[in-house]
Amino acid sequence: DIRPCYYKTAVVVNNRVYVGNVKFDGALYPDRMMKTQRGEYDTFTKQGFIDVDVDDGDDIVHLEVFADRILQFKRNVVHIAKEYEYLESSTKYAGINNPSQVVLTDKGIYWANRAGLWYYNGQNIINLLQNRTDIVANQSLKATDGVMEDSTSRWGSMFEDTKDQGPVLSY
Predict the structure, then answer these.
(1) How far apart are CA 39 and CA 93, in angstroms?
(2) pTM for the whole thing?
(3) What pLDDT was estimated at residue 143?
(4) H-helix or E-strand spanning residue 169
(5) From residue 125, how far is each of 30, 83, 106, 130, 168 by CA, in Å?
(6) What angle do CA 168, 57, 157 make, to 5 degrees?
(7) How far apart (Å, rounded) are the C-alpha atoms in residues 73 and 99?
(8) 137 forms bridges with which residues in the sheet?
(9) pLDDT score at 89
């Protein structure tokens, strides 16, 4: 039983489309994903629902694929779905408000939010701002009026909320 499906984010992987934050058969499902049958990129049925973590009150903002995993970005959490459909892990406070906060590279997925600069390497989610002095010695310190300060405390101020759009990085 094929029905119209509207969605806010999508990825194509394994010869099928995975979509998130959907309106299907007239009902809204902001925290659910759906998939198509292989090779049928625009055909959605009731059997296509994927429930990674639903009824948590958090909308899916963006989907991204890396290393045979789908990262489901919500506003407050990131879920990793193994084999594209089964919940493998979740990371609280790593969510995003806007898809523009995520970038896919050949090394993994990077994203930024008020809580940090995040990296998924195919195995783990890492906040690059935590314990970064072990990684980059003294690169986070700068002098302001003769006083050294740590830029981590000012990281959240790089994000700017506006009424017309989601939070974006400000330069």
Answers:
(1) 36
(2) 0.80
(3) 45
(4) strand 168-169
(5) 24, 17, 16, 12, 21
(6) 25
(7) 9
(8) none
(9) 93
Taking CA atoms, 166 is separated from 49, 57, 97, 162, in Å, by 27, 18, 6, 7
Amino acid letter, residue 91: T
Helix (H, G, I), strand (E, B) or coil at 125: strand
For β-strands 125-127 and 116-120, DSSP reports them as: antiparallel
Smallest CA-to-CA distance from 111 within 121, 100, 122 is with: 100
Give long-range contacts, CB 8 A cutoff, 24+ apart: 112-121: 112/158, 112/159, 112/169, 113/159, 114/155, 114/156, 114/159, 114/167, 115/156, 116/155, 117/155, 118/78, 118/91, 118/94, 120/66, 120/71, 120/80
Q: Determine the Cα–Cα distance for residues 82 and 84; give it in Å rounded to an integer.
A: 5
The C-alpha atoms of residue 152 and residue 149 are separated, in whole angstroms, by 9
Read off the pLDDT of residues 83-128 as tens digits, 9 standing for 90 and up: 888 999 999 999 999 999 999 999 999 999 988 999 999 999 999 9
- Choice between 139 and 7, residue whose per-residue pLDDT is larger: 7
Sign for the pseudo-dihedral over CA of 167, 162, 10, 18:
positive
Q: Is the Cβ–Cβ distance between 128 and 118 less than 8 Å?
A: yes
What the block records as the tokens of 50 is 């994927």
Of 125, 155, 158, nearest to 140 by C-alpha is 155
